[in-house]
Structure formats: structure tokens, C-alpha cells
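@channel sequence for tomorrow's demo:
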Amino acid sequence: MTEVEAKKPQESLQDRLSQVVELLHRHKLVEDLTHRQEGHHQDRVENLVHRQNLVELQRKLDELHPADIAHILEALPLDDRLTVWQLVKAERDGDILLEVSDAVRETLIADMEDHELLAAARDMDADELADLAPELPRDVVLELMESLDAQQRERVRSALSYDEDQVGALMDFEMVTIRDDVSLEVVLRYLRRLKELPGHTDKLFVVDYDGVLKGVLPIKRLLVNDPDRKVVDVMANDPVSFHPDEDAYEAAQAFERYDLVSAPVVDKGGKLIGRLTIDEMVDLIREESESEVLNMAGLREEEDIFASVWKSLRNRWSWLAINLITAFLASRVIGLFEGSIERLVALAALMPIVAGIGGNSGNQTITMIVRALALDQVSTGNTARLLRKELAVSLINGVVWGGVIGLVAYTLYDSWSLGVVMTAAMTLNLLLAALMGVLIPMTLIRLGKDPAMGASVMITAMTDSGGFFIFLGLATLFLL
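C-alpha cells (generated this afternoon):
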């Protein structure tokens, strides 16, 4: 437990945010009051109060973990965010920049001078520098690379050579390696000479003289076995390992499946070049989840909640434009049946029910399919079976709930034929929703796109237009 955690174990993250917001509010309030005062000592009083409030706020920030400060910065409007950011001690800038979201990091970096950015980045590890480098000004990156030693420079270049969704972009270079021909006692003495172990060290990596991975020695085996035993007799010979060009999300799934804390990364020749750790995998899974939610809603990228109006517009306009087109098409479908609606006003009251239930069912199906695709549970071999299953579920739901709403329609309008049409339309629209719920993400996958991209917008468009056409078409054929 850290000192910060020991001080305030009972505080939630929301409590800490509320305290910072309260201090900011108090600072602004007093500052505003002093601005309105008139008198010879106004400037002196204002300066004193200003400093007093900011000192108290800075003291509060000093108590918080960098991840908590990052959360607070993300939850504040831009002006307040920059006020808090200026109060953060310079030596903590780097840790916080790594914790905040990409959108918020952009606003913080824009507020920093080049020398501040260099100071924040100088103590970072190679993998951390690689994460931050694409967002730094080019001249800062060049100066930073020149300040690194040859090994660090090569590691940063190596990490930057991989795409952000590959294992190589996430691997950590800080790890402990040992030989397999030494005793456990020698290993223990070696560890005691180190200043500290790299974070998330649950195993040591056993390599030969050429750096080729031979196995891993879990710390728990090191501690419970006889110190005179050789590493080769105790180590695990078949560890889960990854290649740097593998998909990072598949690696994250392996971490969850095998309950890993760390795992080696090896090149094609089996040489150990880095490791993956659980903290990077958790961050990746969270980012992937957030990305899926954003894509389902048709947002192009992560958005700072307090971003400028123009920036938010740029992020949201494209799928809204598509939605407008689909809504217009749905309205034209209704326009085809204006005469039917005029002759039977009940149709206008009932048709939103058919479209709404269809949209909800389609979103359920598409969410399940996108999740299954993310977990690699769907392949070309089982797509047909999955489609049959979803159609069967929708058929049963359509008959049951369509029957219910059909009875309601019969009760309200005293027309059994309207009730039958309502039941049939509901069933057919749910079948359409199931079909589209499977085909839309599968088609996007075939096209090399994210299966969640705009899925919610597209399924709603299909079930709205389809629902209106089916219901009004059946009503025109059988009721009028």
C-alpha cells in the first residue's frame, strides 16, 4: 500500500473529484469578489487570497495518485483543467500524460512549452516514450531521441515500428533474465543486488547465451523450492509467449484466458525481445470496449467531453448525415402509403410500435454478434447456424409479442383483422432485424472494417424503413 492510499483509503474517486471541484469553485468565487473591491490594498488582498486557494488545491493534488489526477483532468472543463494542470508538480507530468485519454492529452501537451515536454519525457521507459512520441512536436521528439543512449534509442525505434494494435507497440523492455544452469540461491542473490524489480514481475525469463528464451521461472517456484536446486529443474518449459507482430487484442484475450500477469515476447528465432504486462492489457481491453461503444453510435474517434463545439461537430457529423438520409428514406416509405393512413388513422398510431420493437431487437442481435466477433467465437463455418438460431429466436418473439400487441390493437380498435396484421408485421420485422443484425457486422468484417462501425445507426435505419413498409403494406393489402 502506498502512502497516498494509506492516508485516504475511504475516499472514492468521485469524492476526490468533488473536493477538487469545490476548491476550484472557492478559488473562482473569492477571486471574483476581490476583483470587485475598490481600495488601495485590492491587489495585495487579491494576490494573497489567490495564492492561499491555489496552495490548498496544490496540496490536495500532491496527495493523489497520477491516475486519479488524470481522471480529474478528464472530468474538468478546459479552463479548469489547465488551472489544475499548472499546479501539478513538474516531476509528475510524465506519469499523468501517460494516464489521460488521447483527446485530453492533446490539450495538455498544447499548453506545455518544449522544455516542459522534454523534462516530462526524460525519465520515461522506452515503451512509454513510444506511446507518447506520436503526439509530441517533431523537434521535441528529435531532441529527446538525441538525449537517449544507443540502447534506449533502438528500443524506442523498435516500438514505433509496429502498428498500435500489434504486440510490439505495447511490449515492455524492462525485465529480469537468468540462465538455466545456475542454482536458485544464485538467482536470489542476484535479485537482492538489484535496486528494485520491474513492475508486475511475477516470473523471471530464462535465456541461453544468445538470448533465446528457454522457459520462465515463476517467483513462487523460486521462493518455495530448495535453494540448491538448478533453475532448469524448476522452470516452466512451455510458457505462453507472443510475437511482436501478433494482434494485441488477441494477446489481451490470452491474458484473460490464462490468468497471466506478464508474458515474454520473442522474435521469429525465439530470441527474447520484451514482455507484455497485465496493466497494458487491461488498458487495451478498456480502450477496445470504449472504441466499440463509440463505433456503435457512429462516432469516429474518442472525444474529449469538454472539446470545442467545432471539434465535436467534426467527430459526429458523418453518421448523422447518413442517419438523416435513412430517416428521409423511412419518411418516403410512409409517404407511399399516405392514402392508407388517411383512410385508417389507427395505422399512424400503431406503426411506430412495429419499428421501435424491431430496432430494439436488431440492436440486441447486433450487440451479441459484435461481442462474439471480438471474442473470436464466430467464423465462416458457423455463421449459417448462428443466423438460423437468431431467426428462430426472432420468430418466437415475433409470434409471442406480436400476438400480445395484436390483442391490444383488437381491443382498442375492435378489429380482429388489424390485430392479425399487427402480429404478422411485428413477426416479419423482427425476422428482418435478426437477419440484418447478423449480416451487417459480418459484411463489415468481410470488407475489412470494424464490425461495430455505425452498426446501431444502420440497424435502426433498416428496421424503421422495413417496419413501416411491412406494416403499411400488409394493412393496404388486407384492411383496405
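heads up for whoever presents: The chain has three domains: 11-164, 177-279, 309-478.
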